[in-house]
Amino acid sequence: MRRIEFGLSEDKEEKLRKKAIKDACKDAKSKADAIASSLGLELMRVSAVKESGGYVEPYRGGGFDYAIPIPTSMPEALAPPIEPKEVEVRATINVVYECR
After folding, report:
1. pLDDT tens, position by position, 57-99
2. Which end of the chain has the lower number of beta carbons within 10 A, N or C?
3. Domain that holds residue 15
4. CA–CA separation, 59 vs 48, rounded Å?
5. Distance from C-alpha of 30 to C-alpha of 48, rounded to nearest angstrom
6. Residue 76 located in a structural domain
7. Is residue 39 part of a domain?
């Protein structure tokens, strides 16, 4: 079975990876604010940050088996069953805040 894989150019991947990291940082801050306020604490400053890596999930299409012979009497080639889909870019950030 053969598949087609769609990815991103290096420049586009780098740009989207940086955006995913920025979005993860905003999300971490928002969650830390919610946790701190629910405990009656105030966030003071960031004491540690660790990026656990980003991930680009390519789009894999196809899924048809080329081992099955296609009759040569067919006038047209069969188009592969490819559905539009997005390439996903994710990042994970761990942030430690000092509170008071």
Report:
1. 766 665 544 455 555 555 566 666 677 677 788 899 999 999 9
2. C
3. 3-68+86-99
4. 34
5. 16
6. no
7. yes
